[in-house]
Amino acid sequence: SLANQLALGGKKRDGILIVFSLKDRQFRTEVSVGLEKVITSEISNRINQTVISPQFAAQNYAGGFYNGIKALAEKIEANKARIGK
């Protein structure tokens, strides 16, 4: 994935990349391999649809990113024993 190609988080660390194009009104979430069992495509899509998209639609981009990252962080924290396994 793009997250892995960019080596998000550095060596021996995992990361998430959220890319947003205001002009195209599109965004995407990429998850590194080590987090794929915790942040699955289904979970990522659900957070995108229920947390980030409504804020972006209201042109509250900072709030959308903040709340989306918060939701992702909470999911990771609750499942940290599964990271990288």
Your description of this structure?
The structure is a single chain. This protein has 85 residues and is α+β, with helices and mostly antiparallel strands. It has 3 helices and 2 strands, in the order H-E-E-H-H. It has helices at 2-5, 41-57, 61-78, and strands at residues 16-21, 26-31. A two-stranded antiparallel ribbon has the order 1-2. Helix 2 (41-57) packs antiparallel against helix 3 (61-78). The longest helix is centred in the C-terminal third of the chain and has 18 residues, at 61-78. It is globular and about 35 Å long.
Number of helices: 3
Low-confidence stretches: none
Instruction: Report, as a whole number of angstroms, the end-to-end distance.
Output: 17 Å
Round the mean pLDDT to the nearest integer and report it: 85
Enumerate the strands of the largest sheet in spatial order, edge to edge or round the barrel. 1-2
Helix content: 40-55%
DSSP strand content: 5-15%
User: Could you spell the SSE succession in H and E letters?
Assistant: HEEHH
Using only CA atoms, what is the Rg?
A: 13 Å
What class do helices, strands and sheet pairing give? Answer: alpha+beta
The number of E-state strands comes to 2
Major β-sheet annotation: 2 strands, antiparallel
What is the general shape? globular
